[in-house]
Amino acid sequence: MNPENLKKLVEVKMPYGKYKGRIIADLPGNYLNWFASKGFPDGHLGQLLALMHELDHNGLKPLLDPLRKGQDMLK
Q1: How far apart are CA 10 and CA 17, in angstroms?
Q2: How far is CA 37 from the centre of its chain?
Q3: How many domains does the chain have?
Q4: CB atoms near residue 73 (< 10 Å)
């Protein structure tokens, strides 16, 4: 796993669909589960969605909190 991808989870916004414009880290678990059952998209977006699904599924979302705080400081 690339540690840079964790940072991207709090930076990259969903480019399409029901949650267009929402950062990947804020996507609801049921939406991530839907992707997991149907197949993640190809490319970098799919990798980020799969990573976020793993974090959400295993109760590890709080690991992103320090990265979120870093993002808030940049605003």
Answers
A1: 18
A2: 16
A3: 1
A4: 7
SS3 of residue 23 by DSSP? strand
Burial track 41-69 (b if 16+ CB lie within 10 A, e otherwise)? eeeebebbbbbbbebbeeeeeeebeebee
What mean pLDDT comes out for the span 13-40?
A: 97
pLDDT at res. 68: 85
pTM beyond cutoff 0.85: yes
Distance, CA of 75 to CA of 58 (rounded, Å): 30
Maximum separation of any 2 CA atoms in the chain, in Å = 36
State which residues form the domain around 29. Answer: 3-74
